[in-house]
Each structure stands twice: as C-alpha cells, then as structure tokens.
Amino acid sequence: MTNEVIDLLNALSEGRITLDEVAERFRTRRWPRRPPTQPSTYGDMAAAELRDPDPYLPGSFDDVAAAYHRKTLTREQFRVLSRAVADAQRAEDAAEGRS
C-alpha cells in the first residue's frame, strides 16, 4: 500500500529527496484527522480507554510514526517531520478559525 506520505518517506530514505524538502511538503499538505470524540460521562471515558487504538488512517501521521518505529527514520528526522505536520495542522486550524 502506498500514498503520498509513504512515497516521500521512501524517497527520503533512499536519498532522492532531502529532509528539508519532505518537511516543506509536509507543511503545505492537508493532513487527514480523526473526528474528536467527547465522552459525556465517566463511564464513556472509561470505555474509551479500554477500546483498541484507532485503525490505521492512510496518508496520515500514522505513516510517519510507523516509519520511525520501523527505524527507517532517525529520531531527528522524526522530530523535524513531526514539527512540520504540527505546523500544517496549526495553519489549517487558523485558516478555519479553530483554536
């Protein structure tokens, strides 16, 4: 399975693109997000804690985290790319009037 994020991470790993180029692309793309869930009771909160993790979301930060856990990204690369994703999401939130 492949998508833009995986393609960029593979290109970085293979030396076909620089970390700065990947980070810049990450800053300018729209990142898919899971809708937030707000438990209304303590029972709902407890049930949420016991559920399995959210399923894989293709083209999301899940791909970056998976690459780090496979050790195809260094800690420093992961930090740079994490910041780039956060920058993109903050810019999107600001453009949409969210805080």
Please explain how this structure is put together.
This protein has a domain at 1-33 and 57-75. With 99 residues, it is mainly α. Helix 2 (19-28) runs parallel beside helix 5 and helix 4 (61-69) packs antiparallel against helix 5 (75-95). It is 60% helix and 0% strand. It is globular.
Chain-averaged pLDDT: 92
Order of helices and strands: HHHHH
Estimated radius of gyration: 16 Å
Q: How many strand elements?
A: 0
* Strand-pairing-aware structural class: mainly alpha
* DSSP strand content: under 5%
Give the terminus-to-terminus CA distance: 34 Å
| Low-pLDDT stretches | none
Query: Which shape, going by the Cα principal axes?
Result: globular
SS field, number of helical segments: 5
Largest sheet descriptor: none
Helix content: 55-70%
Features:
globular, mainly alpha, 99 residues, 60% helix
Task: Give a nutshell description of this structure.
The chain has five helices and no strands. The protein is mainly alpha-helical and 99 residues long. The chain has a domain at 1-33 and 57-75.
Question: What's the helix and strand layout?
Answer:
Layout: H1 4-13, H2 19-28, H3 42-50, H4 61-69, H5 75-95
Helix pairs in contact: 2-5, 4-5
